[in-house]
């Protein structure tokens, strides 16, 4: 198993340290009487040899080599100092040069594992990015601290649920930590001959009941908190997005927006509650357990806690190696082959692609076998060192039991705590990074929430009546993505109240853009669009869209019944008005012919109805609102002769603007406006334009 260049560092440092310890053996009689000073002098004498050894790597010397040398030299001195301060009185710190081979093996094995973890390479090619990936700093910590801060602020809005959950968490920790302590006390009582009293049994039962009860409440409250946060953030994001301008939706893929709701919102809403649940619990448990262990047996505690960094190092190596597995999976060319299947068929390359895929699978299998062997090796090393430390703890505890420093109950309590502390420390280290990653995943969500719609979002005018007179005054427009090509150029025309005006022209002449400007889906680059002599931006946004209504060739219906789609937003309309609008739109025969009638489900996007039937329902929805301006974008068929004029005469619409290519529909209009290449070529009645034999005649 070949190590990368950085992996040479552990071997070089450990060989150099072994040489340094051999050279320091003659100085043991001089350094030993100095106590802690001698211990640190030994470290200082080992450091130059270790530093020189790192220089031997020359160009292959990895970054952080000097820091690694300092760590190897100073770690035994730090541990010896704590052991001396917390150990029994009179105990002197031992020099590493005079230590037993077992102790040397443990310390150097720990150093080797830690440095291998530090030198573990990233996966070749990196891990494929997903919609949930967030930028990270070189140290692996997610960026965007503002996202984390806002996720915390969002969670604080539910402070009552959060506070109750944290309270239950703290009480559950008290109950869980009391169990081993009470168990040790009961065992000491049995050993002393006092026997098990009702009070002792009650203490054990109380500790267990407290842990079980409040652990369940804690989990339920944190789940409730996540659900409420998800509802709140989803509603806030949706409400903000629906008020954005059209350019935003055209420039943002729909899949990206859907990913925010389906993936990122749950991650953000899970980050703080799950982080608080795991991290706060692990922090309290680690502090309480570590404190109890040091209080019960300081010497044993230092020895037992040596297992924690070893577990962290092995975990980091395993995590890094698993990233290679992901890269190996992505190395196969399945996605590329499927995407280019037509090309493969055209050139009869199926056999070559199959052989290439077989080779990729064989390579992936070999890499997986290597990964599993490496994981097995590192797991074995961790288990052996873990077993060695536990054997040393038991050996040392036997000595302390024999000398009367601890009781059997204290030993049982200590061992129960030892099984827990390593896991809680690892949860703290890895859970914190996971918390930052999940919280920072909301960076895009916060960007959307901070985004302001471009342009004028609307004024305040809401006149009680509108005549429906529309005027385009020297209107020009270009799309942001193609500023070199104007779509409308100095367009001027009128749509008179009480008339049906048709907008005609070849494809690409600007008809749909003119409709979008009248609907205020976009704003003109120059010029003005007026409604009853007032610029459109001065009208209140919702009022304008109630008065200017668009029906397209393929309208959108919502999941629900025909009735619900027609009365959308007008729940208090009269039944007579509903039937009048449906009759005028030609939808009444359709509705009466359906088994469920008005209560017929139209399906998603109206998929259970034919295209013509959807248009009838959409027309009825528009006429029910009695708009000042009704825009029909290819929404009339040849069989709808005179329908627009009837709607104007009956007051269902005051003004109608028709966009169509159908000659019969165009000839039925009161006035025609002919566009060509973004400019107005002709205006007048159909008869007048036919006589001129100009742009309208060419169009027909």
UniProtKB/TrEMBL annotation:
Ranges that cross the membrane: 12-32, 38-58, 65-86, 98-120, 159-178, 198-227, 283-306
Segments forming domain ABC transmembrane type-1: 164-437
Sorted UniProt keywords: ATP-binding, Membrane, Nucleotide-binding, Transmembrane, Transmembrane helix, Transport
InterPro entries attached to this UniProt entry: AAA+_ATPase, ABC1_TM_dom, ABC1_TM_sf, ABC_transporter-like_ATP-bd, ABC_transporter-like_CS, P-loop_NTPase, Type_1_exporter
Cellular component annotations (GO), alphabetically ordered: cytoplasm; membrane
Topological relation to the membrane, as annotated: Multi-pass membrane protein
Superkingdom: Eukaryota
Compartments it resides in: Membrane
Protein name in the entry: TAP2 protein
């Amino acid at each position: 198993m070949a190590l990368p260049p950085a992996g040479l560092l552990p071997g070089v440092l450990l060989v150099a340290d072994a040489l340094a310890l051999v050279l320091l053996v003659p100085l043991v009689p001089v350094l030993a009487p100095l106590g802690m000073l001698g211990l640190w002098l030994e470290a200082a004498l080992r450091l130059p040899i270790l530093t020189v050894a790192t220089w031997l790597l020359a160009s292959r010397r990895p970054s952080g080599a000097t820091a690694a040398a300092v760590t190897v030299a100073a770690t035994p001195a730090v541990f010896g100092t704590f052991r001396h301060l917390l150990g029994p009185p009179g105990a002197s710190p031992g020099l590493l040069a005079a230590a037993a081979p077992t102790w040397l093996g443990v310390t150097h094995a720990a150093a080797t594992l830690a440095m291998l973890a530090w030198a573990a390479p990233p996966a070749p090619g990196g891990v494929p990015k997903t919609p949930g990936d967030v930028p990270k700093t070189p140290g692996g910590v997610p960026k965007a601290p503002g996202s984390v801060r806002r996720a915390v602020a969002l969670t604080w809005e539910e402070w009552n649920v959060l506070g109750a959950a944290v309270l239950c968490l703290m009480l559950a920790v008290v109950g869980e930590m009391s169990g081993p302590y009470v168990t040790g006390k009961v065992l000491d009582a049995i050993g002393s001959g006092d026997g098990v009293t009702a009070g002792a049994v009650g203490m054990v039962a109380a500790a267990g009941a407290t842990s079980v009860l409040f652990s369940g409440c804690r989990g339920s409250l944190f789940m409730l908190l996540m659900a409420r946060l998800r509802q709140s953030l989803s509603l806030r994001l949706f409400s903000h997005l629906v008020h954005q301008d059209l350019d935003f939706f055209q420039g943002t893929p729909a899949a990206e927006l859907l990913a925010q709701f389906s993936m990122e919102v749950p991650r953000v809403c899970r980050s703080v509650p799950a982080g608080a649940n795991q991290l706060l619990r692990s922090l309290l448990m680690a502090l309480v357990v570590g404190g109890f262990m040091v209080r019960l047996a300081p010497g044993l505690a230092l020895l037992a806690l040596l297992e924690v960094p070893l577990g962290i190092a092995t975990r980091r190596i395993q995590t890094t190696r698993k990233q290679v597995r992901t890269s190996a999976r992505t190395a196969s060319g399945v996605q590329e082959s499927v995407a280019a299947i037509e090309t493969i068929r055209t050139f009869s390359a199926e056999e070559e692609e199959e052989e290439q895929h077989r080779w990729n699978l064989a390579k992936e299998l070999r890499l997986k076998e290597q990964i599993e062997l490496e994981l097995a090796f590192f797991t074995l090393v961790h288990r052996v060192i873990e077993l060695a430390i536990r054997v040393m703890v038991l050996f040392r505890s036997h000595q302390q039991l024999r000398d009367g420093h601890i009781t059997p109950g204290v030993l049982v309590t200590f061992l129960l705590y030892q099984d827990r502390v390593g896991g809680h420390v690892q949860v703290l280290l890895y859970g914190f990074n996971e918390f930052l990653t999940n919280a920072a995943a909301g960076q895009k969500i916060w960007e959307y929430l901070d985004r302001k719609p471009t342009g004028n979002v609307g004024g305040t005018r809401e006149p009680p009546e509108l005549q429906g007179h529309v005027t385009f005054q020297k209107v020009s427009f270009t799309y942001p993505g193609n500023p070199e090509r104007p779509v409308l150029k100095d367009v001027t025309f009128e749509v008179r109240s009480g008339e049906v005006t048709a907008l005609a022209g070849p494809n690409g002449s600007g008809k749909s853009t003119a409709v979008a400007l009248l609907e205020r889906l976009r704003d003109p680059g120059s010029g003005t669009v007026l409604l009853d002599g007032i610029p459109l931006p001065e009208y209140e946004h919702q009022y304008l869209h109630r008065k200017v209504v668009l029906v397209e060739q393929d309208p959108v219906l919502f999941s629900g019944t025909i009735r619900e789609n027609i009365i959308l937003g007008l729940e208090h309309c009269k039944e007579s008005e509903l039937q009048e609008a449906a009759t005028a739109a030609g939808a009444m025969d359709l509705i009466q012919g359906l088994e469920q009638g008005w209560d017929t489900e139209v399906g998603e996007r109206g998929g259970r109805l034919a295209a013509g039937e959807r248009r009838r329902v959409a027309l009825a929805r528009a006429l029910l609102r009695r708009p000042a301006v009704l825009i029909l974008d290819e929404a009339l068929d040849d069989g709808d002769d005179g329908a627009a004029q009837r709607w104007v005469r009956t007051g269902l619409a005051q003004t109608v603007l028709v966009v169509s290519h159908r000659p019969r529909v165009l000839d039925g209009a009161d006035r025609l406006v002919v566009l060509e290449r973004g400019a107005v070529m002709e205006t007048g009645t159909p008869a007048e334009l036919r006589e001129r034999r100009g742009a309208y005649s060419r169009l027909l």
